């Protein structure tokens, strides 16, 4: 028996069933409860109340949420009423007061009211009355049933065992409805079942969430010079079901963000970007719900890469959160840390950071990350490779007098400016002020902190004391 039925048998009068699939949730839960003598009813604002499984039952109490609550009170023992999207009505004072008054009579007479909602954010007026049960998305066996149904109804043959597994893997994270639609599209477009079509539909999950961005890049690790330590490590662990991710600390403009896109492309994994700023909303509890929703989607999108750029900015103000935002920032941060520590899906997180002093210490402890790498400025050899690349890309001539301490982003900017102005490289140099000059003290402080606390992303240059004096950056 399911955890849902355990709560029903224990006499819980009010359950909050969090689901994106109300129809499938009701179908699965009523199948087992009706076998043991329970009468099950459903209600929504348009159709009213129907007895599930009774083809001759007529709709009643349409459009009246209070009448629906009273309806359950008048039913015999072992009755269950499923309320679709009822969370929209609870903030009304008459509704939540009626609900509060009826919960005890429900319990005394063995009845259960079940709110079906896509969100787990229970209105504070009634949150103590409900127990939350999460109805998970379809498992592989459920998706396989949908696939077999579509194959039978369309007359299209199933792929071999490996092909079926790829299709089911691509469909993980989709509702049964979304998976069926994706299969139908695949039949129309490809005349069969194509996992790439399914994956394209899966990307809609990310596109529909304002906090997430679907990254699309042709960058690969082969196009990124240096970073031998970082590349070798990530290529080994990012494909493991035990992976968590890496934190990339370093100088601005050294290719930290581009590395995540290149890794995803090389491994054949989609890359999603998370914008922490879009998680913060105006209403109490909404920001935490947005954060949970974003991480739920990332879990559904797995296996994938999750890029969080300049994470220290997204988490700024955590220390003073209780005084400045009522603790919202702290709660969002806690939601993120809990997910980072506990998620079991194959999501490899790559977070970049330019100012380590802005990060709370609990963010850096063991088991948050697989490793913390320091990404320094390009080495002399790497600078030469980067310069030749952009010199060719922008078709500019000349050589700068020196690029000591330049980042890859600055080298790119140099070539782009020379192309825009129609001048030579050496003449365009006057418009570039490298960060290694304007922020030398901060960079040295960052290197000093990283020396004994992080792993170098690149191997040391020959003839140095083992400290990285540079590496390449973003292309």
Would you kindly provide a brief summary of this structure?
The chain has helices at 3-9, 22-35, 65-73, 93-108, 140-154, 161-171, 176-190, 195-202, 204-207, 228-237, 256-267, 286-301, 311-314, 321-324, 328-342, 380-394, 408-421, 425-428, 435-438, 440-450, and strands at residues 14-18, 39-44, 48-51, 79-84, 111-117, 131-134, 212-215, 245-250, 271-274, 304-308, 347-353, 371-375, 455-456.
Describe the structure.
The chain folds into three domains: 3-134, Rossmann fold, CATH 3.40.50; 140-202; 208-475, Rossmann fold, CATH 3.40.50. Strand 9 (271-274), helix 12 and strand 10 form a beta-alpha-beta unit. It is built from 20 helices and 13 strands. The two termini are 55 Å apart. The strands form two sheets. It has a seven-stranded mixed β-sheet, sandwiched between helices. With 475 residues, the chain is an alpha/beta fold. Residues 465-475 have low confidence and may be disordered.
């Amino acid at each position: 028996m399911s955890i849902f039925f355990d709560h029903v048998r224990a006499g819980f009068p009010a359950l909050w069933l969090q689901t994106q699939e109300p129809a499938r949730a009701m179908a699965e839960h009523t199948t087992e409860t009706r076998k043991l003598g329970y009468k099950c009813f459903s209600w929504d604002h348009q159709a009213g109340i129907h007895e599930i499984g009774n083809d001759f039952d007529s709709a009643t109490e349409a459009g009246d949420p209070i009448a629906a609550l009273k309806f359950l009170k008048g039913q015999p023992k072992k009755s269950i009423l499923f309320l679709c999207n009822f969370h929209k009505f609870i903030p009304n004072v008459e509704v939540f007061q009626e609900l509060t008054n009826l919960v005890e009579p429900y319990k005394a007479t063995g009845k259960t009211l079940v709110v079906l909602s896509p969100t787990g954010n229970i209105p504070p007026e009634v949150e103590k009355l409900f127990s939350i049960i999460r109805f998970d998305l379809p498992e592989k066996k459920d998706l396989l049933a949908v696939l077999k149904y579509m194959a039978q109804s369309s007359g299209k043959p199933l792929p071999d065992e490996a092909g079926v597994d790829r299709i089911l893997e691509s469909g993980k994270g989709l509702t049964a409805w979304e998976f069926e639609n994706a299969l139908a599209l695949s039949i129309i477009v490809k005349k069969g079942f194509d996992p790439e079509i399914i994956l394209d539909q899966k990307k809609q999950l990310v596109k529909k969430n304002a906090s997430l961005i679907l990254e699309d890049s042709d960058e690969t690790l082969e196009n990124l010079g240096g970073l031998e330590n970082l590349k070798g490590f990530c290529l080994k662990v990012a494909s493991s079901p035990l992976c968590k991710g890496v934190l990339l600390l370093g100088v601005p403009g050294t290719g930290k963000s581009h590395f995540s896109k290149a890794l995803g492309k090389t491994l054949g994994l989609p890359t999603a970007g998370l914008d922490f700023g879009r998680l913060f909303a105006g209403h109490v509890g909404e920001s935490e719900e947005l954060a949970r929703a974003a991480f739920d989607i990332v879990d559904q999108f797995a296996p994938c890469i999750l890029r969080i750029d300049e994470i220290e900015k997204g988490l700024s103000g955590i220390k003073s959160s209780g005084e400045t935002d009522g603790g919202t920032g702290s709660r969002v941060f806690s939601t993120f840390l809990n997910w980072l520590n506990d998620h079991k899906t194959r999501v490899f997180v790559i977070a970049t950071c330019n100012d380590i002093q802005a990060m709370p210490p609990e963010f850096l402890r063991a088991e948050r990350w697989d490793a913390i790498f320091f990404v320094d400025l390009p080495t002399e050899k790497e600078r030469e490779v980067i310069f030749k690349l952009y010199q060719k890309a922008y078709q500019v001539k000349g050589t700068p007098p020196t690029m000591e301490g330049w980042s890859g982003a600055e080298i790119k900017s140099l070539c782009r400016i020379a192309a825009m102005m129609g001048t030579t490289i050496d003449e365009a140099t006057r418009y570039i002020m490298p960060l290694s000059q304007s922020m030398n003290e901060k960079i040295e402080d960052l290197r000093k902190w990283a020396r004994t606390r992080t792993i170098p992303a690149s191997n040391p240059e020959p003839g140095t004391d083992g400290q990285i004096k540079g590496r390449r950056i973003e292309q």
